[in-house]
């Protein structure tokens, strides 16, 4: 992350963004992450190899942010693009351990996780928990 991100985005938000990006991309696949600081429509900018870029809308600065909301917003916008990019071409992310499709976000009051969209027997991958 670069620039004066922390003056506009708090640590919780930045951590949630990092977590969402790392749920979809391996470290070597991400060249850089930055935020375009438009006060009304800040955008996350994810730089991939070969000058490829992905964007995700983050919502107004004034909007209250919950870490899981930030995660969900970033994750769901980026996930759709993953199989179309050079570095992750045709790959479902996050990959379901039992099938050739991506896992989907599972969010309950206490758990944020990845789950198989079809079979409840496939173990979920927990991202975060709240008591
Ligand atoms: Zn599955």
Write the layout of secondary structure elements.
Layout: H1 5-8, H2 11-24, E1 32-36, E2 43-48, E3 52-57, H3 67-79, E4 104-107, E5 111-115, E6 125-129
Antiparallel strand pairs: 1-2, 2-3, 4-5, 5-6
Helix pairs in contact: 2-3
The site of zinc ion has 8 residues, from loops.
Descriptive notes:
The chain is α+β, with helices and mostly antiparallel strands. It has helices at residues 5-8, 11-24, 67-79, and strands at 32-36, 43-48, 52-57, 104-107, 111-115, 125-129. The protein has three helices and six strands; from the N terminus they run ααβββαβββ. The chain has a domain at 5-93. A three-stranded antiparallel beta sheet has the order 1-2-3, with helices on one face. It has a three-stranded antiparallel beta sheet with strand order 4-5-6, covered by helices on one side. Mean pLDDT is 89; it is low at 1-6. The structure holds zinc ion. Residues 96, 98-99, 101, 116, 118-119, 122 line the site of zinc ion.
Question: What tags apply to this protein structure?
Answer:
131 residues, alpha+beta, 3-stranded antiparallel beta sheet, 24% helix, flat, disordered N terminus, binds zinc ion
Give a short synopsis of this structure.
This protein has helices spanning 5-8, 11-24, 67-79; strands at 32-36, 43-48, 52-57, 104-107, 111-115, 125-129.
